[in-house]
Amino acid sequence: MGSSPSSSSVVFAVLFLVFNAAVLCHGGKTSSFVRKVEKTVDMPLDSDVFRVPPGYNAPQQVHITQGDHAGKAVIVSWVTANEPGSKKVIYWSENSEHKEEAEGKVYTYEFYNYKSGYIHHCTIRNLEFNTKYYYVVGVGHTERTFWFTTPPAVGPDVPYTFGLIGDLGQSYDSNITVTHYENNPTKGQAVLFVGDLSYADNYPNHDNVRWDTWGRFVERSAAYQPWIWTAGNHEIDFVPEIGETIPFKPYTNRYQVPYRASQTYGKYTPQYKWLEQELPKVNRSETPWLIVLMHSPWYNSYNYHYMEGETMRVMYEAWFVKYKVDVVFAGHVHAYERSERVSNIAYNIVNGKCVPVRDQTAPVYITIGDGGNLEGLATNMTYPQPEYSAYREASFGHAIFDIKNRTHAFYGWHRNQDGYAVEADTMWFSNRYWHPG
């Protein structure tokens, strides 16, 4: 949990967190679309999407994320199976023949009876904005070449487009989700991922082989554009009964990020103090859009994980309203839901004002935990639909948040059953700072 590394590079800021009006009682729309009831099944280990690249010590599970706060650095990560091999990344811009090198570090870890491959992390710095770069990993053995494009320079009216994925896993439905995202005509330039990656912990002894298969599965996207990570409950991997007492061990070894984790979220803990200091730092004249990612939703009208985010909401929601957060994305609930702009911050123990009310200074809350993992869909909704819930649907999918300028962004949610260009739910966002009406 920390500020997104791409946050000051364009027109937005992204923050991460782990984990006397009329009463709102008559809700918005519950989608009439009914997904065919099917069991969600993980793809077998010999699936083509898990294929190990050919060649001796070939780099695999290649992925990138932003490497600094300004958007001029990228962390390149990969795994080699046979030996550590080269720690170097060779890279060059599309319009230059001059090649540069950066050298990273290699990590390994053990988890119960599993020993990881050689996990490489290398930060390449001093990149130019809005530039396509090629990079090579596996230098000296089996070399593999990939590319990415850096974000544009900071500016209040610079457009930028995010993909939104959560609770992905590695089922057949997960594969459909990634395919739909890849083929969406509105191309995301980076993915905001709201937690729960591999679901390896659903296997006996948290089988870490499923971390490897997941890394190979998402490489087709994550090697070419930054995936900005938020940790979920399935990343904890705390299993004292088999001797695993270090939480988040596989996740932190595999998915490094350019900020120091803020640990727990209780009041006056490092995360609390960090967020208290971080929100006022956001310069909305430079980065107008303020986006927050978390895993457990605060506003959730499904009977799954109901109220689990409440302890966090009562601590932080007033800050989100005060600092005019535009939108909050969460996962955890394996379905889709979008809220109205509401807040529930008026209660002071004696006034009785303890229900959500319409509040145009508040963010929209979107649950996007519908990536398609083996645990299946959350189909059991609360009734009546609360008024804070604008749209909800039990389907798998992904979303796009398309920032146009300092005042407006277009949001669309895509269900997996539709064509690539079809949007099942849409909303025009007006920026809370520059266009609050």
UniProtKB/TrEMBL annotation:
Entry-linked Pfam families: Metallophos (PF00149), Metallophos_C (PF14008), Pur_ac_phosph_N (PF16656)
Annotated EC: 3.1.3.2
Domain Purple acid phosphatase N-terminal: 59-150
Superkingdom, taxonomy of origin: Eukaryota
InterPro entries cross-referenced by the UniProt entry: Calcineurin-like_PHP (IPR004843), Metallo-depent_PP-like (IPR029052), MPP_PAP (IPR041792), PAPs-like (IPR039331), PAPs_C (IPR025733), PAPs_N (IPR015914), Purple_acid_Pase-like_N (IPR008963)
Keywords for this protein: Glycoprotein, Hydrolase, Iron, Metal-binding, Signal, Zinc
Reactions that this protein is recorded to catalyse: a phosphate monoester + H2O = an alcohol + phosphate
Calcineurin-like phosphoesterase domain sequence ranges: 161-336
Signal sequence extent: 1-27
Gene3D superfamilies (alphabetical): 3.60.21.10, Purple acid phosphatase-like, N-terminal
Root EC class: hydrolase
GO function term, MF aspect, one: acid phosphatase activity
Residues of the Purple acid phosphatase C-terminal domain: 362-419
Cofactor(s) of this protein: Zn(2+); Fe cation
Family that this chain belongs to: Belongs to the metallophosphoesterase superfamily. Purple acid phosphatase family.
Name the record gives this protein: Purple acid phosphatase
Species this chain originates from: Salix purpurea
